[in-house]
Design goal:
Blueprint (H helix, E strand, L loop, with lengths): L6 E4 L2 E4 L15 H5 L7 E6 L10 E6 L7 E7 L12 H6 L3 E6 L8 H17 L7 E11 L1 H12 L5 E5 L15 E6 L11 H7 L6 E6 L12 H14 L20 E6 L6
Parallel strand pairs: 5-6, 5-7, 7-8, 8-9, 9-10
Antiparallel strand pairs: 1-2, 3-4, 4-6, 10-11
Length: 281
């Protein structure tokens, strides 16, 4: 029985209750078209956090659903890559928010910050979101995730080790000198790019994925003919799989399992895909 369809009689009143299999479902039933769309079902707004008021990170932009009718939402922090600012990932924030997440696209303290620092800054941004931000009442503090590009992706991996309570991580064309992430317990989608010469998949994304524990919910997606900078412009493949991964693991919404398992075919957009299907429920 679905979350929307489960009703329990309470006297003369029908009270909606949650089905454990549905997790925290938000929005209508998904389709291949809906996860690929430039905007999802939720209207969104945004607010800016100044670097002067931020603590432990460089400020940023928060994107959030304007509706409060469906309760609280999961939240995600996004970190940019080496020498880049939050503008490099600005396309992804509102796209994820429109699918039912609060998204904090941050600047780092300095543009040369290394992955370990970026990991700490992602966690500081999440702490700010749930403790101090103007949208904190919209967030379920127990459903948090991280995304990062390049050194920010390396930072996302660092964050999973530092905070195992995270629900999901998505390192995008990640770079990190540390290759072993066997201590991570966070469901992780690693996205590599076939033609990446900055963080070649053979020395970064692939060994990162391989080092994650065998029993962990994890996946490796390689973008066909793509460069290191593929995550810096709107990309339907990145968006579709990010939405599905976050919905599945931040929200526990099994309606999105269909887009992750069985593994999609390789082809024009995907040169490789590996997954620990079936995922735990």
């Amino acid at each position: 029985m679905t979350l929307s369809g489960l009703l329990v009689a309470s006297g003369l009143t029908l009270v909606p209750t949650a089905d454990a299999a549905d997790g925290y479902a938000r929005g209508p039933a998904p389709t291949a078209a809906s996860i690929a769309a430039a905007r999802g079902p939720f209207a969104t707004a945004e607010t800016t956090v100044s670097a002067l008021t931020a603590r432990g990170f460089g400020g940023g932009t928060i994107y959030f659903p304007t509706s409060t009718a469906e309760g609280t939402f999961g939240a995600v922090a996004i970190a940019p890559g080496f020498t880049a600012g939050r503008s490099s990932m600005a396309w992804l924030g509102p796209r994820l928010a429109s699918q039912g997440f609060v998204v904090f696209n941050i600047d780092t303290v300095t543009r040369s910050d290394q992955p370990a620092s970026r990991g700490r800054q992602l966690l500081a941004a999440l702490d700010f979101l749930v403790d101090s931000s103007t949208v904190r009442d919209r967030i379920d503090r127990d459903r948090l995730g991280v995304i990062g590009h390049s050194m920010g992706g390396g930072g996302a991996l660092e964050a999973t080790v530092a905070r195992p309570s995270l629900r999901a991580a998505i390192p995008l064309t990640p770079w990190n000198l540390t290759k072993n992430w066997s201590r991570s317990q966070v469901p992780t989608l690693v996205v590599g790019a076939e033609n990446d010469t900055v963080a070649p998949t053979r020395s970064h994304a692939e060994p990162f994925f391989a080092s994650l524990p065998a029993g962990l919910d994890k996946a490796y997606l390689e973008l066909n003919r793509a460069s290191h900078f593929a995550p810096n412009t709107p990309n339907t493949t990145i968006a579709s799989f990010s939405i599905s991964w976050l919905k599945r693991f931040v929200d526990g919404d099994v309606r999105y399992e269909q887009f992750l398992c069985p593994a999609p075919r390789t082809g024009a957009e995907i040169s490789a895909y590996r997954d620990s299907c079936p995922h735990a429920v």
